[in-house]
Amino acid sequence: MPSLSEIVAYTDDFLRIREIGDWDNALNGLQIENSGRVTRIGAAVDVSTRVLTEAARKSVDLLIVHHGLFWPGLQPVRRALRRQLQLAFENDIALYSAHLPLDIHPKVGNNAELVVALGLKSAQPFLEEKGQPVGLKARASMQRSELVRKLRKALNGPVKVFNFGPKQTCTIGVVTGGAGSEIYRVAQENIDTFITGEAPHWAVVAAEELSMNLLLGGHYATEVFGVKALAAHLSKRFRIPCAFIDCPTGL
């Protein structure tokens, strides 16, 4: 069996953890180490008590997440954080978190995987954040209704559709997660159809003013792709099983 240090070193390089900027509380990379042994990889969008409990039930000893333990910032080790740490320690679960490095990865990233699922070709990076482009855009002449159908199929769930742009798309922008507040910056790229996870109320008003189609697939649903793909990649490379732990938030 490969060691935790081997897998972490490879994943850090594969995702370019040290090169890609992010918000401080993302704390990308290994957040909790275990005894050093890895026999099963788990993948989840968020770390939580539910996820850690299910990881322990599935005998996962390396859990990969998109949103790690420290998003709320520095805090006392009590209540929820104490419970989560206790679950990890008692069940020898290592925790690895990757936020922007996973969003933007060209092979296993959230954006890249969703673009492939939608059948979009020759997508190019756009929308700079923290020193690197965090979205993908593609020229695609497609009926808006067909794009919505493909998106619902890819996400296996509902999509909120705001039809303020052309019925025949020309340029589609994809930024998974909660990028709706970037709609004005997205519009500067001559994008007529913007796909993201969630948006503030005012972004819908903005979409109408900008004559842009806005498709909201859910923050959680648009970010399951990366952790699944990364876990599958590591599973194949290191020849250890993996499992996806599905704990949707409803957003």
Major sheet details? 6 strands, mixed
Which value, in Å, is the CA radius of gyration?
19 Å
User: Any idea of the CATH topology of the largest domain?
Assistant: Udp-n-acetylmuramoylalanyl-d-glutamate--2,6- Diaminopimelate Ligase, Chain: A, domain 1
Helix content: 25-40%
Identify the notable features of this structure and list them briefly.
2 domains, Udp-n-acetylmuramoylalanyl-d-glutamate--2,6- Diaminopimelate Ligase, Chain: A, domain 1, single chain, 9 helices, 5-stranded mixed beta sheet, 251 residues, 11 strands
Quickly describe the structure.
About 35% of the residues lie in helices and about 25% in strands. The chain is an alpha/beta fold and about 250 residues long. Helix 2 (about 50-55) packs parallel to helix 3 and helix 5 (about 110-115) crosses helix 9.
